[in-house]
Amino acid sequence: MSSRSIPQTQCASAPNLADLLAMLEAGSFPERKRQEMASAIRTIARALGRPQEEIPANGRLLASRLKDVSPAAIGISTGRWNNVRSLLRNALSFIEPIPPGRNRNDLSAEWHTLYNKLGSRSDKIALSRVVHFLSAHGIRPGEVTEETFNAYQDHLDRSLLKRPAQTFALTVRAWRRAEATVEGAKDHGLDTQPP
Question: Helix H segments across the chain?
Fold first, then answer.
């Protein structure tokens, strides 16, 4: 089985991309948005080399299959491929909650203060997503646990990122650097060891 194939047993238990297309057709979406999402779904099916009826509309499963797709191999640019993935995320959100690709919420005051203490730009970038995730879920700095990191890892897996495992690993390394270098980090819960 190739990395792009999806077992039939997984198709029977979940809505598929054809179901998702039918939902878009029946919905009251603006015409242009509907056409863009429908085009993205057809592009995903083409990229996976399977009929839409055989591809589950499951964000986690699709993320694992799409990470290895080369846009050039299916005749589209990297920019268009990123747009297709974003449009798919939008369409899938009608079936299951999909985390946004970027953080759209403001940081709580506590997280904002700690985030601003980070010295390196690379650590700020690596920790931005997790800090926004924690803030959005109302998890205060002193409340971060190993289970919190497990929930964050699950969040990344469902987000249709190209490399969620790599993103999580970068986050863990940056978190450990922050707990060692940020003044008062241990007082604010940054001494929690990720898994």
Answer: 8-12, 17-26, 31-48, 59-66, 78-92, 109-116, 121-136, 146-158, 164-181
Residue of 40, 59, 63 whose CA lies nearest to 167: 63
Domain-located, residue 124: yes
**38 and 77 assigned to the same domain:** yes
pLDDT in tens, 52-97: 999 988 887 888 788 888 899 999 999 999 899 989 988 887 776 5
Residues 44 and 115 in one domain: no
Residue 88: C-alpha distances to residues 20, 43, 59, 83, 150 (Å): 10, 10, 9, 9, 25
**Residues of the domain holding 172:** 109-188
pLDDT tens readout for residues 103-138: 556 788 888 888 888 878 888 888 988 998 888 888
* Structure-token match 């506590």, residue found: 110
Q: What are phi and psi of 98, to 5 degrees?
A: -115, 125
Q: Which of 92, 119, 147 is the last residue of a domain?
A: 92
Return all residues near 99 (Cβ < 8 A) that are at least 6 apart.
155, 156, 158, 159
Question: pTM here?
Answer: 0.53
Q: Which amino acid is at 88?
A: L
104 falls within a domain: no
Same domain, 121 and 183: yes
Residues 19 and 82 in one domain: yes
Residues 131 and 169 grouped into a single domain: yes
